[in-house]
Structures are given as structure tokens and as C-alpha cells.
Amino acid sequence: MDKNVEAFMEDIVAKNPGEKEFHQAVQEVAESIMPFIEKNPKYKRAKILERIAEPERVIMFRVPWIDDAGEIQINRGYRIQMNSAIGPYKGGLRLHPSVNLSILKFLAFEQVFKNSLTTLPIGGGKGGSNFNPKGKSDNEVMKFCQSFMNELYRHIGPNTDVPAGDIGVGGREIGYLFGQYKRLRNEFSGILTGKALNWGGSLIRPEATGYGCVYFAQEMMKLSGKNMKGKICTVSGSGNVAQYTVEKLNELGAKVVTLSDSSGTIYDPDGIDSKKLAYVMELKNVKRGRIKEYAEKYGITYEAGKRPWHIKCDMAFPSATQNEISKEDAKILVDNGCICVAEGANMPTEPEGIETFQKAKILYGPGKAANAGGVATSALEMSQNSLRMSWRREEVNEKLQWIMKSIHENCVKYGKEGAYVNYVKGANTAGFVKVADAMLDHGAV
Ligand code: NDP
Asked: Where are the beta strands (DSSP E) in 89-205?
């Protein structure tokens, strides 16, 4: 490791003990932008990287609620307000039993660079709770969301911090959170994105992360003279991002053969067509069932406890969670002839896996670039709320496509290494420059 990165990381580890996901995310960025900082001493003198790695504010709070049996339950809530140099904090809320400070700090840190890349004026934040929505009734989810908002409402606002969804937070949860905010403040304002269409939501927001990820993959393929038609794709996860990734891949003539959840993977060699996708959407979003039921319905293979990466594919779209592609998985993907990996999830590939992709010189689009379409469309929802207007579906989709194209161009601009594009370096550097310059303008704050 470069000695400047080593010294920087020693300090990060000492200040944030035990936060391994946060260390991983910071180190990835430090490694790719340290040479750029060394060449531009104004950033070094102003200690921009050190400041970016320190959250502006961390809020942790008790979330008590009463379950259907009348028993008191206690969860822990968080909001990490990471960086507001270029706009109000923006980033999702995650509800999952694995949620802790380290995971939310890594996500908030990534969000700062991602949001900067979108070309829109949004800062970075992230939040959530270790609450597990699985197996809970609608009433219990509502009780939790209301209690969560009873504290969060003090810290957010349309010009301060605008949360959105993430794992475990979809339309239902955004509705309950919004309802409680409105009640507490006696105010109808755009304090959350991912809202339903009839109360301030934007068309294309639910589709945006998955669609955007496919648009980004399409740009990477185009630049290297390839197209998506007929390509065999593996997708992990079966939630919001995975579902709309499949929809867009189908539209572009690719064939998706896998989906997964935390219990296992389905392999459908005939492809998950639009009819089967409609079944998945009903199964996951309404019945809240398991992906195994797909295998039972269509009589195909289900692999319990497995991820999809051993299945031969041309393109892979990790869309479930962090660290879901190990070094071994990456090697199998490359050996099986995979030419492109576009990350719908945040930090789904372990550092050695990224190295494997880059050594093999395959197209590798890191999450902070490839999945930025979600937050970008959230920012478009904020714009529509401010204007008190709604844009047409085609209008939002066009803007999303344009944004993904710009992100790709910026990655190429800062990431070109001869004929190869290092999208990690490109995304980190492009994201950094805009935030860093704003921080220089603002002085030592
Ligand atoms: P959802 O909750 O809708 O779906 C998550 C999916 O991933 C589910 O299939 C879930 O399975 C699976 N999953 C979750 N945790 C694990 C785990 N530990 N191991 C294996 N599988 C797991 O979330 P989203 O689709 O919104 O988010 C997916 C990823 O995309 C996350 O990394 C998120 O941060 C990222 N992302 C999301 C954006 C958005 O707009 N929603 C924007 C940008 C990034 P199960 O049902 O069994 O839990």
C-alpha cells in the first residue's frame, strides 16, 4: 500500500475502531485518489480527504414501539449526515437486522461521491435501524416507522436532509414515515423521496436505480464496441433494484437467468421474461414471500444458501447487498467469460474481487457510479416538489438517461488508463473534485 494511504488509514482505523465496512469504503477511495491529491496540493493543505472521512454529524437514537402482542420492542435508529458541501444531505434509510454504525457510515461516505457524480446539488447521508421488517405485520411496521420519525423529524427538512428508501424501505415504509412527519410538523413538504405519485412522488423513481444501472452498463458496452442484445445476465437480489434491472435488460433484448434472496438463488435458463417478472413483483412486494416459490411455480432449479456467481454469464448485476462477490466469485465470473459487471448494490464486491476484475480488464462499473440513477431521480423528485409540478414519464426517463451518460463520461475523463477505463478511479476522482472544490470555497468548516 502507498505510504500516504497507509498513514491516512492508520488514523481512520484508530478514530473509528471496529468499523470494518467503513474502513473498506474509505480505503478504496483513498487508494484511488491519493495520487491525484499529491498532484494537487491545495486539497492536501486543506485536509479535504481527512475532513470528508469525518461525518458532519451522527445521530443515534432509541426507537421504542409496541408489537401486536402488546410487548415493548426497542430498536436503535441512526442518521449519518456525512457531507453538505454541495447540497442538503441525501441518502436512503435501511431497515435490516445487520444495520450498525459501520455499515451506515460506509454507505453515507459512498453517497457523498455518488451524489456529487449525479451532476445535481445534493450532499451525502444515510440512516436506518436494526429493525427487521420480515415477518412483521403492516401494523407493526407502521408503529416502528412512526416511532422512528418521532425522533428523526427534528433533524431533517427539505433544505436540510431528505432521506429515501434502501434495503427494507419501499413505498409502504416511506408512506408511514411521511404521514408521521406531516402530523408532527403540520406541514406538507418534500422531506422524503420515493413517495407515491398521488402525494408528491415522481414517475420513474421506483425504476430508477435498476434502469440507471442498465443504462450505465450499456454505456460501458458501447464504448468498447459491444451491445447487450442476446447477452446472458445474472442478477442477484429480488428487491427493488433487481426487479427493475431485469425489466430494463429484457427491454434491451438481454436474457436474465438468475435472481436471489438471502436464502438462495433461482436459475431459470429460459430467462425471466416479463410475465415471470410480474410474478416476482407480486411475490416480493405484495405477498412478501421467498424467491424459492418461483422455482416451485416454474419447475426450475433452486440453490439454497447460494449466490448466482457460479452460473455462466456474459454480464453480472449484483443487486442485493455489500460484499456479496468474493475474490473466488470474481475469479469464477471471469473464468466463465463474464465481460461486464455493473453494481446495482452498494459495495457488493470485496476489494480482492475488484482487483480480479481490473486485472482481467473486464468492464467493471462500481456502485457509486452504476447505481447513482436512484438518488439522481430522487433529486428530480425534489425539484418537482419545489416547483409543485410533475414531469411526464418520458421526461424523467430522458433526464435519467442523460445523467447516467454524464456520469459515464466523467468516469472516462478521470479514469482512462491507456485503452482501459478504470471506472473506480474515474468515479472516485470525479466525485471528489466537485465536493472538494466546494469545501475549499467554504473555508475550514
Ligand atoms: P430491497 O430491500 O428491495 O431488496 C434487497 C434484496 O437483497 C432482497 O432480495 C434481499 O433478500 C436481498 N438481501 C438483502 N440483504 C441480504 C444479505 N445480507 N444477503 C443476501 N441477500 C440480501 O432493497 P433494494 O433493492 O432497494 O437494495 C438493494 C441494494 O441496492 C442495496 O445494496 C442498496 O443499498 C442498493 N441501492 C438501492 C437503491 C434504491 O434506490 N433502492 C439506490 C442505490 C443503491 P431478502 O428478501 O431475503 O432480505
From this structure: 89-95, 124-129, 161-164
| pTM, full prediction | 0.96
Q: Is residue 120 within 8 Å of residue 87, measured between CB atoms?
A: yes
- Atom of ligand 1 minimally distant from the CA of 194: 40
Is the Cβ–Cβ distance between 257 and 272 less than 8 Å? Answer: yes
Residue burial 204-226, b: 16+ Cβ < 10 Å; e: rest: bbbbbbbbbbbbbbbbbbeeeeb
| Cα–Cα dist 39/59, whole Å | 36
**Cα-to-centroid distance, 43 and ligand 1 (Å):** 35
Which listed residue (90, 105, 126, 434) is catalytic?
A: 126
Helix or strand (DSSP H, E) at 295: helix 292-298
- Give the sheet arrangement for strand 363-365, strand by strand: 301-304, 264-267, 255-261, 232-235, 315-317, 340-342, 363-365
Q: What is the largest CA-CA distance in the chain?
A: 64
- Grid cell in block for residue 137: 405485520
As beta bridge partners, residue 80 has 58, 126
Q: Looking at the predicted structure, is the pLDDT value of residue 404 above 90? A: yes
**CA dist., res. 264 & res. 303, Å (int):** 6
Known active-site residue 416: no
For 188, the grid coordinates are: 406538507
- Distance from the alpha carbon of residue 234 to the mean position of ligand 1, in angstroms: 15
Q: What letter represents residue 354's amino acid?
A: I
Per-residue pLDDT reduced to its tens digit, 145-186? 999 999 999 999 999 999 999 999 999 999 999 999 999 999
75 touches 104 (CB < 8 A): no
pLDDT tens sequence across 209-247 = 999 999 999 999 999 999 999 999 999 999 999 999 999
- Domains of the chain as residue ranges with CATH: 57-187 (3.40.50.10860), 208-361 (3.40.50.720)
